[in-house]
Amino acid sequence: MTNQTIHMKTKVHFLLALACLSSAALAAPQSFDFKDPKGVNNATFKLDAPLEALNGNATGISGTVTFDPADPAATKGKIVVATASLHVGNSMQQQHMLSDKWLDAAKYPEIVFEAKELKNLKTDGDATTADVSGAFTFKGISKEMTVPVKLTYLKDKLGQRVPKLKGDLLVIRANFTIKRSDFGIMPGQMEEKVSDAIELTLSIAGASPR
Amino acid sequence: MSKKVLRTLALLLLVATLAVWVATGANRGWTKTSVPVTRTDEVTGITVDDYQKRFVPGIDFLGAALLGSGILAGASFLFRTKQPQS
Q1: A90 touches chain B (CB under 8 A)
Q2: CATH architecture group of domain A28-209
Q3: Higher pLDDT, A10 or A103
Q4: How many domains does the structure of chain B reveal?
Q5: Within a domain: residue B61?
Q6: Which long-range contacts (CB under 8 A, 24 or more apart) does B4-13 make?
Q7: Which DSSP symbol is given to A79?
Q8: Quick one: which H or E segment has residue B65?
Q9: Which residue of A has its CA nearest to B36?
Q10: Among residues of chain A, what percentage have pLDDT more than 90?
Q11: Per-residue confidence at B36, pLDDT binned at 50, 70, 90?
Q12: What value of ipTM does the predicted structure carry?
């Protein structure tokens, strides 16, 4: 074997190794940070009681989600909503809502959903719908729940939101209903004014800079 | 304070409150101290309601005004009508 042949073989091996590494890096799960500098990430809540309707939102969202575009089923992560960021249009109602009688924001500062498993996945282009199972913790009580979600992977779109940054975005949307009585929030009381069912809508985007 | 003054005040309170309520959008819900203004992120398509401080009187505001004017009008009956001297 000539020196030239050996040199060529080494080159080919190096290029192959590089290609393998690049594809592994592309397929690797990415970590998305959901602390949004634009303050757009939000969770809305709606309560429709016979005598009163109440709605508002929360923008104090944080957390991280690990997502692999090549394997969305492996998605895991945690989304945190700061209880104190819950807002309604009436300041007195807001004070009551955050008080120790209702949500006790001082004692339970976070509402958390921790995703553990995704089932019934359907992927169409960049969008994946699935049922995500995980633990929902509200006012110190954790319950296992399954929630329908839509994940939209926006490759190379981070720069359009945050100039000078390169990376990808992951948009998560979910719509589900919980019962306040399941989480010890004044169970069975004042249901004519504050409904037991709370309809939640989550619209959040996470960033994965490169 | 005479009967006439109290009744006029009651009427003025009621009319002024109604005018303010109608002028601010005739909100049939509870009084709001902040209102949502919707904003959309063009890249992700996410919409968010930003709350801006604004006073929007509701039916509780109308009720309080009605109660106030009722008290004023009711108080006017405590005054005796001057009997013409014979």
Answers
A1: yes
A2: Beta Barrel (2.40)
A3: A103
A4: 1
A5: yes
A6: B4/B76, B6/B72, B6/B73, B6/B75, B6/B76, B6/B79, B7/B72, B7/B73, B7/B76, B9/B69, B9/B72, B10/B68, B10/B69, B10/B70, B10/B72, B10/B73, B10/B76, B11/B69, B13/B65, B13/B68, B13/B69, B13/B72
A7: E
A8: helix B59-76
A9: A89
A10: 83
A11: very high
A12: 0.80
Q: What is the pLDDT of residue A23?
A: 45
Nearest CA to B15 out of B62, B76, B84 is that of B62
Contact A39 B48 (CB under 8 A): yes
Which candidate from A44, A53, A157 shows the least CB-CB separation from B43? A157
Range of the domain at B12: 3-76
Measured CA to CA, the distance from residue A55 to residue A94 in angstroms comes to 11
Enumerate the H helices of chain A as residue ranges: 3-27, 91-98, 158-161
Q: What is the pLDDT of residues B52-63, one digit of tens each?
A: 999 999 999 999
Q: pLDDT tens digit string along A115-145?
A: 999 999 999 999 999 999 999 999 999 999 9
What is the residue type of B12? L
Domain boundaries, chain A: 28-209
Mean pLDDT confidence for B73-85: 80
The answer to whether residue B85 is domain-embedded is no
CA gap B43, B38 in Å, rounded? 16
B40 inside domain = yes
Chain B residues touching residue A161 (CB < 8 angstroms): 41, 43-44
Cβ neighbors of B6 (< 8 A, separation 6 or more) are B72, B73, B75, B76, B79
Residue B41 domain-assigned? yes
